[in-house]
Design goal:
By secondary structure, the protein is α/β, with parallel strands linked by helices. About 35% of the residues lie in helices and about 20% in strands. The protein has a domain at about 5-155 and about 350-380: Rossmann fold (3-Layer(aba) Sandwich), CATH 3.40.50.
Length: about 450
């Protein structure tokens, strides 16, 4: 995304703090702390947790002074008193009366913060992907199963009507048998620039258990472009495409894939660490689920289909976007559209729908906490585990240039020793991998 687009969307998000649905708390709000007050943690989680009326923000944590101050400025501009601020998530977890935490840090920090929250008995709103490596995900699952906490994985699209509508259409038989599914995100990614580490961020702690990497400047103040660095992120499929994989899994009732293969590389954006084009094939019991992305400006023949999912049936093809879906009948009859499949990413209409589903998600999270049951959570831990690990296996298949076949009992990889050796990424001292501590 171009810098001017970043700044425009940032301005829109800031304006939304002081317009729209007012902040009205319930009589007994849940006391929530937020770990990671960057763009997502502030403009989406903090804002919509407040707009839901179900939460009182009692603590904020970030290793960036700029990110913390930005969150404080937006709260005070909206007439909300700033809560205590923390540099350490461990200190935030010890805030008296704290009931729940939202973990919105970069991926490589999720496992340690999640496991610690489970041990503290804190309910968890967890950003996706839940982990950087497979063994971390297993350690998180063990900690969750040993606890008595509510966990919501942030899959806001599960709260939109699209998935249920597409699922019902497929079940009705109108699309026929689904023979293949294709998800794609074709979105340009601009270059990143290494700069000196600003004195407003504790970059050593930011890197945490990951390798000490370069500081890449981001167009928004107080942020860095960690998503383009392999040591912090697994790339577009694992970071953004996970939402569409989760949509597919929920519609088709899929668990873990049996095998994953991937091919791709860098043809234009030289100097970046992730492939600028990637094709992935995930085999779910004979159903091929395909993934494709291109980051160098590819324009789809039908531009509204550059982000979304195709379901290929023998009676019809379905395309599902974020705000609508459409059907192309195999008999050549008229295309049918449901909702608005052409809503532009970042438009006012798009942002209003995002706000609606986020508020619904926070309301469900609060209700689950009050009822002390995970049964009503849509973004379950298992969904987070299965979609995250599928993305990791895809990256391992790409890195090793060899198919990954999964042993679903222990999450090992069969007949690919190179990929098997990458299931656990060693932590940088003094941090200890949570799987290695078992």
């Amino acid at each position: 995304m171009e810098r001017r687009e970043f700044l425009k969307s940032s301005t829109l998000a800031a304006g939304a703090w002081i317009t729209g649905k007012p902040f009205r708390q319930t009589d007994n709000p849940i006391r929530l702390g937020i770990v990671g007050t960057g763009w997502w943690g502030t403009d989406y989680l903090l804002r919509n947790a407040l707009k839901s009326g179900e939460f009182e923000i009692v603590a904020l944590c970030d290793v960036s002074k700029v990110a913390l101050q930005n969150a404080v400025d937006k709260m005070t501009a909206a007439g909300i008193a700033a809560p205590p601020l923390f540099h350490s998530y461990e200190e935030l977890y010890d805030v008296p009366g704290l009931e729940a935490v939202a973990i919105a840090t970069p991926t490589h920090w999720h496992p340690l913060q999640f496991v610690a929250a489970c041990k503290k008995g804190l309910h968890i709103w967890q950003e996706k992907p839940i982990s950087y490596d497979i063994r971390e995900a297993q350690a998180m699952r063990k900690a969750f199963q040993a606890s008595d906490v509510i966990v919501n994985i942030d899959f806001p699209r599960l709260h939109a009507p699209i998935n249920a509508e597409v699922k019902d259409f497929i079940r009705s038989g109108q699309a026929g048998e689904i023979y293949q599914i294709q998800a794609n995100i074709h979105n340009p990614v601009g270059p990143s620039k290494e700069v000196e580490i600003p004195d407003t961020i504790d970059f050593n702690t930011y890197c945490g258990p990951a390798p000490k990497l370069k500081y890449l400047e981001h167009p928004r103040p107080g942020r860095m472009s960690w998503r383009v660095q392999q040591g912090f992120s697994r790339g577009i499929f694992a970071d953004w495409g996970i939402h569409y994989l989760q949509n597919i899994r929920s519609i088709m009732n899929l668990g873990l894939p049996d095998e994953v293969s991937a091919i791709g590389g860098i043809t234009k954006n030289f100097g970046q660490e992730h492939p600028d084009h990637l094709e992935v094939r995930l085999n779910y019991g004979g159903l091929p689920v395909m993934w494709s992305h291109k980051t160098w400006g590819y324009t789809a023949p039908q531009t509204h289909t550059k982000i979304g999912v195709f379901y290929f049936g023998d009676k019809a093809t379905i395309f599902a976007a974020d705000s609508g879906w459409e059907v192309y009948p195999a008999d050549g009859s008229t295309r049918k559209e449901y909702g608005n499949v052409r809503v532009a990413l970042g438009s006012d209409e798009y942002e209003k729908e995002i706000e609606r589903v986020f508020i619904a998600q926070f309301e469900d999270f609060a209700n689950a906490i009050r009822s002390k049951s995970n049964d009503t959570i849509k973004g379950t831990f298992d969904h987070g585990f299965n979609s995250t690990t599928a993305g990791i296996y895809a990256d391992l298949a790409y890195q090793t240039r060899q198919q990954v076949t999964i042993d679903k009992v222990n999450m090992d990889i069969k007949d690919n020793p190179a990929a098997q050796g990458l299931l656990l990424r060693p932590y940088r001292a003094p941090y200890r991998h949570p799987y290695a501590q078992d």
